[in-house]
């Protein structure tokens, strides 16, 4: 993800599960929500939480747009045949909480077992 508009919009501040205390803003926290394996596919849900302390939602909206541009209908070359791998946005919410703008965007990712 380095050298993408998303990476630049948070200056590389992408954290796994939780951000460090007093982390510079804006940033994104990526959390594994669920991970399920079936005989036909491996599936997981990943939530990206965008955090901004600006007074307006403009910064968070710009980061959200960069995230969606990167991951919606993403093409992962070299993984195999079409429909072998997929990534789909399943949920998105925006809230204002304690002076922070929070966007929670969830994607389902699956890999078919051939």
From TrEMBL:
This is DUF3168 domain-containing protein. Pfam families: Tail_completion_gp17 (PF11367). InterPro entries: Gp17-like, Viral_Tail_Comp_sf. The lineage of its organism: Bacteria, Pseudomonadati, Thermodesulfobacteriota, Desulfovibrionia, Desulfovibrionales.
């Amino acid at each position: 993800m380095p050298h993408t508009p998303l990476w630049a919009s948070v200056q590389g501040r992408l954290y796994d599960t939780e951000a460090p205390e007093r982390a510079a803003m804006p940033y994104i926290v990526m959390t594994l929500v669920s991970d399920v394996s079936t005989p036909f596919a491996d599936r997981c849900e990943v939530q990206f939480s965008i955090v901004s302390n600006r007074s307006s939602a403009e910064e968070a909206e710009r980061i959200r747009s960069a995230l969606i541009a990167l991951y919606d209908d993403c093409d992962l070359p070299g993984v195999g045949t079409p429909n072998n791998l997929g990534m789909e946005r399943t949920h998105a919410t925006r809230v204002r909480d304690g002076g922070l703008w929070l966007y929670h965007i969830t994607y389902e990712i699956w890999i078919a077992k051939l």
